[in-house]
Amino acid sequence: TVEVSGVPFFDHKGVRKVILVFYDITQMKRSEKSLKDFVANASHQLRTPLTSIKGYSETLLDNPPANPEGGRQFLEIILKNADHMDKVISSMLALARSEQVGEAFALSPVSGRESMGRAVADVTPWAAERSIALRSRTPEDEMFVMAEADGLLHVFHNLLNNAVKYSPEGGVITLSAEDDGESIVFCVEDQGPGISREHSFKVFERFYRVDENTIDGAGSSGLGLAICRRIVRNFEGEIWHDGYGEDTRGARFCFRLNKPAMDRPVNV
Ligand code: ADP
Hints:
The chain is α+β, with helices and mostly antiparallel strands. The chain contains six helices and nine strands. The protein has helices at residues 26-62, 68-98, 112-129, 149-166, 197-200, 224-234, and strands spanning 2-10, 16-24, 108-111, 133-137, 144-147, 172-179, 183-189, 238-241, 252-258. A five-stranded mixed beta sheet has the order 4-6-7-9-8, covered by helices on one side. The chain has a two-stranded antiparallel ribbon with strand order 1-2. Strands 3-5 form a two-stranded antiparallel ribbon. A hairpin with a 5-residue loop joins strand 1 and strand 2 (16-24). The model has no long low-confidence stretch (mean pLDDT 86). The structure holds adenosine-5'-diphosphate.
């Protein structure tokens, strides 16, 4: 899209001329549209639980239930919806932070092993509640990657949380890391319902959820993977879903990050 503005003037011979300035506003229009989409999606995401909070609060006020148990059930629904709004807002803030334009990312060597270990320790109690086992398949060597420690941990947390969320009771989640010389590829694989090919790119889009209708207890905003993708890209890496292997039943998310230059093989 091009916008034009003109400035008329007379040259030294008195001839009338016009200077035309062309502005390429394609990018601007695109970001305007994406901002509009974002606001529309965000409002929708927040309005749904808010409507429920308002509805149940009004019912409690207008028709107080005779027995305390009835009131408790309503309050639990209100709390669940408030928790969901809390999660959506935190995710939106995390996304905004990771999308700050012009922000310089100070990448430095970060231990992938340590980050994975911390994330596993954090989700283990939650996984244990449903007898879900977490297994790691990693090389013996230290695995340093160019990243920022908090961002890397955020990506592991997000992928592991999703894996637990979608795993069946008693399922196994496998974490792996593979050194391919230039970079390290980390994967998180579960035995849940998986993601079909038609959805496998879209799940990285903001607010995209395969099943729109589920607002489960753990909260679902459709922002988690968009944040992971932004963070991994900020680290000059890539992230994808490839749960279509011979023996893969569930979802398998992988991301690749560069190794520090000193750890890469020297080509002679
Ligand atoms: P959220 O989990 O908050 O909805 P995400 O961006 O993390 O948001 O995920 C987007 C969608 O991708 C989810 O709503 C779900 O449909 C699908 N998804 C993500 N991880 C998995 C997984 N491990 N197994 C099956 N589906 C998944």
